[in-house]
């Protein structure tokens, strides 16, 4: 699937010439206390190209972008914009020059309108007052340029994430940006929204805008990228035309070794006994009459588009959201779950898609996070914590899951995404959970760390744990699960053994194109 | 620096500024550095310390309690009224404590069940409790409470008095006032709670990430409720001790004490965004405020100037704390 990249011809895309270099960085070095974040990195962006920057977490991508946008000043090296030396002291300097950055976390004010957001802090004025007519007219023009069907007077909070992203792009263009930096722009977009974004990117290329594109989704690169620069451990590795390389080669450069396979071989075999049975689960307006069984040692995939109700079903079973009807049986016994607390006691675990928001206590340390769901195991009857036991538990999981941390008292906020994910898994293993609901287990995680997470999932299944893996990345579902349950608009459409189906068929069900007539 | 070193540095910085204050005031006022004045300062600090410890627990959960000043007035007034009506002193004070706990319970229920923002819930309680205290007493002070009512606030442990050669009593050691003893016991107990008990760990977890704590099976509502009840109880205790010290119950007592308590916690490194804070830091913070007031008083600085200086100290302390946390 990915190897087709190298031979894909892309007619109609003008190949960028050697001339027309908009932005050039030479030998950029940036040092933080104890860390060399960037070590002599060079990089350039030409007019009309999409230039991807790839690298694992901590490779220096975001530091490089912050140097370009003026948030950081480099310790050594030069930044040339349109051939002239520049020293940006802040993002307003770089914006004024024509460099705009669109962050992964969108920077819009939710309670203001689209127009007000686009022209925030540079509103057209009539004397002391805002010229509302001009504001809306200009915003309308910006949106029209991108062919966007968004009302200038709509409140930003009423827009979808994809629409908000488009507004950010419109804002960048209204600044006459010549260089546009996009950090993980598709991480929260659905398939069709991504297509729309790519169409806009193609349009921007035609007008000569240089785009720096950062994404963990390497399979996207083939669709829009012209050149790829790889960084590793703060050092420059290579810059190549995408046509001359392949995703496999890029990944090998990112991790510094070749990955034989994206997914490990499944070693575990699901048993026949049913661990979890869900019957007629319904939450009005969210999901309807969901039935499935999960066997001991099985990995069951939840596939579907964003908003199909997969996460909502998992959260409802876990007691995090209320249900209107339905029953849940664990090992044949009917469960009454009113809160996550009840669910945890019964041996269920929910690993959220958003670790930082609702998975980890970021201000607390590694040991404290591991034991958080199972304090009884490390405390005496009076409720006093036994620190020796807690340290033992922490040391065990740091070793068993190969968590890279300076120690068990390291504050979790400072760990990388992959290690944070392993920490969340440790928490639930320590709780001796029997069923794991694993929501987007590899989102925002490095390629190398993904493999480790997959291996871990396989091991857990081998120990007889039932795993529900919710994922928007179909290759992951196809590569790791025993069976796949496909959701469409709040209904579980079908459950198929993974070996007997293929990606296209799953997509077919997920998009609702062949839902059985009677259900 | 590792987090641990940073923590120690912060503690040391606060402690060093405390010692610096002591050194400066020892120069500016000859009477400042003495056992007698030390006990006076300790006694004056007790109220801020009790309330500061309570505030620390609530702020660690990411909440705030603005009602402690009003609750302490109501608790003290109720205790005094019962004693005045003939109830034994311990019973009266126990009732005061209960009133405090009840107010805290209502605060906690407003936050957990009604889902009101803590700022609003406790702002409401601040007005209600103060209003009830004024209503009960017709805004008049209750005095003539008798010697036994004064014992808790004015008695001392290990007070040594010798009858001198001239037949008059001679105080060898002023003793450790009961409120100071209570402060030490309280600080140790809450410190153990926060550091060693699962309940304390859950307080930090809720403040650090409420949703993560909930999904980990932490009884979020129960633990939050506990923080507010504890805060109410400690406010009630403060009320009893303070009124006993004055041997008068004033319904207008404790005005703005909640702000002193929050200031003590913040100077001691408690983060208003939750998840961070220690009892030892808060006690140091309380002493910084107390010693500033006492030392400035003894050096003849006016009350207005004192306010200005304490305000500046709070700004400085929080600014330094923020610097420490930046990257």
**Which architecture name of the largest domain in chain A does CATH use?**
3-Layer(aba) Sandwich
The class by helix and strand makeup of chain B works out as mainly alpha
Tally of distinct domains of chain B: 1
- Strand percentage of chain B: under 5%
Shape of chain A: globular
Helix content of chain A: 25-40%
Sequence stretches where pLDDT stays below 50 over 5 or more residues of chain A: 1-18, 515-519
E-strand count of chain B? 4
What summary fits the major beta sheet of chain A? Answer: 6 strands, mixed
Q: Biggest interface between protein chains, with counts per chain?
A: A-B, 35 and 27 residues
CATH class of chain B: Mainly Alpha
Question: How would you portray this structure in words?
Answer:
The complex is a heterodimer of chains A (519) and B (327). Chain A is an alpha/beta fold and 519 residues long. Chain A has four domains: 3-98 and 178-255, 3-Layer(aba) Sandwich (Rossmann fold); 106-174, no CATH class; 261-347 and 434-446 and 456-514, P-loop containing nucleotide triphosphate hydrolases (Rossmann fold), CATH 3.40.50; 360-432, no CATH class. In chain A, 31% of the residues lie in helices and 25% in strands. In chain A, helix 6 links the parallel strand 9 and strand 10 (210-214). The two termini of chain A are 34 Å apart. Chain B has a single domain, classed as ABC transporter involved in vitamin B12 uptake, BtuC. Chain B has a two-stranded antiparallel ribbon. In chain B, strands 2-3 form a two-stranded antiparallel ribbon. In chain B, strand 2 and strand 3 (169-173) form a beta hairpin. The radius of gyration of chain B is 20 Å and the shape is globular. Chain A binds chain B through residues 32, 318, 320, 339-341, 343-345, 350, 352, 357-365, 368, 372-373, 375-376, 379, 383-385, 406, 409-411, 427, 431, and chain B through 2-4, 192, 196-199, 201-202, 204-205, 207-209, 211-219, 275-276, 327.
């Amino acid at each position: 699937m990915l190897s087709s990249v190298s031979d894909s011809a892309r007619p109609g895309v003008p190949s960028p010439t050697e001339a027309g270099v908009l932005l050039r960085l030479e030998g950029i070095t940036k040092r933080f206390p104890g860390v060399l974040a960037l070590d002599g990195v060079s990089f350039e962006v030409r007019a009309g190209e999409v230039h991807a920057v790839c690298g694992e977490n901590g490779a220096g991508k975001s530091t490089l972008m912050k140097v370009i946008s003026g948030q950081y000043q480099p310790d050594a090296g030069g930044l040339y914009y349109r051939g002239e030396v520049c020293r940006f002291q802040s993002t307003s300097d770089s914006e004024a020059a024509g460099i705009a950055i669109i962050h992964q976390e969108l920077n819009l004010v939710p309670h203001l309108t689209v127009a007000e957001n686009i022209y925030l802090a540079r509103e057209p004025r009539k004397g002391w007052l805002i010229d509302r007519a001009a504001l809306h007219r200009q915003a309308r023009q910006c949106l029209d340029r991108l062919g966007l069907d968004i009302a200038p007077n709509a409140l930003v909070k009423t827009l979808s994430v994809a629409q908000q992203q488009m507004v950010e792009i419109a804002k960048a263009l209204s600044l006459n940006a010549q260089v546009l930096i996009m950090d993980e722009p598709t991480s929260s977009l659905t398939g069709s929204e991504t297509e729309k974004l790519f169409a806009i990117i193609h349009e921007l290329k035609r007008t000569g805008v240089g785009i720096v594109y950062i994404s963990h989704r390497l399979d996207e690169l083939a669709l829009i990228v012209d050149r790829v620069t790889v960084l590793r451990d703060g050092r420059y590795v290579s810059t190549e035309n995408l046509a001359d390389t392949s995703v496999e080669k890029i990944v090998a450069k990112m991790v510094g070794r070749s990955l034989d396979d994206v997914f490990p071989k499944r070693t575990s075999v699901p048993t026949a006994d049913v661990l979890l049975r869900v019957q007629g689960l319904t939450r009005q307006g969210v999901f309807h009459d969901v039935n499935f069984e999960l066997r001991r040692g099985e990995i069951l995939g939840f596939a579907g588009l964003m908003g199909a109700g997969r996460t909502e079903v998992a959260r409802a079973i876990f007691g995090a959201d209320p249900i209107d009807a339905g029953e849940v049986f664990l090992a044949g016994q009917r469960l009454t779950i009113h809160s996550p607390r009840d669910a945890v006691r019964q041996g269920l675990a929910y690993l959220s898609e958003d670790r930082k928001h609702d998975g980890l206590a970021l201000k607390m340390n590694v040991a404290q996070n591991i034991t958080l769901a199972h304090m009884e195991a490390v405390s005496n009857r009076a409720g006093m914590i036994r620190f020796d036991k807690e340290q033992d538990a922490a040391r065990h999981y740091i070793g068993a899951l190969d968590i890279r941390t300076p120690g068990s008292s390291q504050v979790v906020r400072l760990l990388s995404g992959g290690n944070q994910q392993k920490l969340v898994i440790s928490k639930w293993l320590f709780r001796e959970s029997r069923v794991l609901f694993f929501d987007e287990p590899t989102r925002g995680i490095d390629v190398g760390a993904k493999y480790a997470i997959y291996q871990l999932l396989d091991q857990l299944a081998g120990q007889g744990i039932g795993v529900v893996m919710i994922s928007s990345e179909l290759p992951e579902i196809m590569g790791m699960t025993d069976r796949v349950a496909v959701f469409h608009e709040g209904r579980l459409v079908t459950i198929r053994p993974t070996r007997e189906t293929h990606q296209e068929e799953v997509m077919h069900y997920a998009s609702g194109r062949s839902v059985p007539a009677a259900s | 620096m590792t987090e641990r070193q940073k923590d120690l540095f912060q503690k040391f910085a606060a402690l060093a500024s405390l010692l610096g204050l002591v050194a400066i005031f020892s120069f500016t006022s000859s009477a400042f550095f003495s056992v007698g004045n030390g006990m006076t300062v300790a006694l004056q600090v007790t109220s801020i310390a009790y309330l500061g410890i309570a505030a620390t627990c609530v702020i660690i959960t990411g909440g705030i309690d603005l009602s402690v000043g009003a609750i302490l007035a109501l608790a003290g007034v109720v205790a005094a009224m019962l004693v005045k009506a003939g109830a034994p002193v311990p019973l009266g004070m126990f009732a005061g404590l209960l009133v405090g706990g009840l107010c805290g319970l209502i605060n906690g229920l407003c936050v957990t069940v009604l889902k009101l923002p803590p700022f609003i819930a406790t702002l409401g309680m601040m007005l209600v409790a103060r209003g009830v205290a004024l209503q009960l007493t017709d805004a008049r002070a209750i005095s003539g409470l008798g010697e036994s009512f004064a014992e808790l606030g004015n008695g001392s442990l290990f007070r040594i008095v010798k009858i001198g050669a001239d037949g008059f009593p001679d105080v060898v050691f002023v003793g450790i006032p009961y409120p100071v003893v209570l402060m030490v016991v309280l600080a140790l107990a809450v410190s153990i709670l926060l550091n060693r008990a699962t309940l304390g760990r859950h307080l930090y977890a809720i403040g650090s990430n409420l949703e993560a704590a909930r999904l980990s099976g932490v009884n979020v509502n129960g633990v939050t409720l506990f923080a507010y009840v504890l805060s109410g109880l400690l406010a009630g205790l403060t009320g009893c001790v303070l009124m006993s010290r004055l041997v008068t119950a004033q319904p207008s007592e404790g005005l703005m004490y909640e702000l002193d308590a929050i200031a003590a916690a913040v100077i001691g490194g408690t983060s208003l965004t939750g998840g961070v804070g220690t009892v030892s830091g808060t006690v140091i913070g309380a002493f910084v405020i107390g010693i500033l007031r006492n030392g400035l008083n003894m050096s003849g600085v006016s009350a207005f100037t004192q306010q200005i200086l304490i305000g500046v100290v709070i700004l400085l302390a929080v600014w330094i704390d923020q610097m420490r946390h930046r990257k």
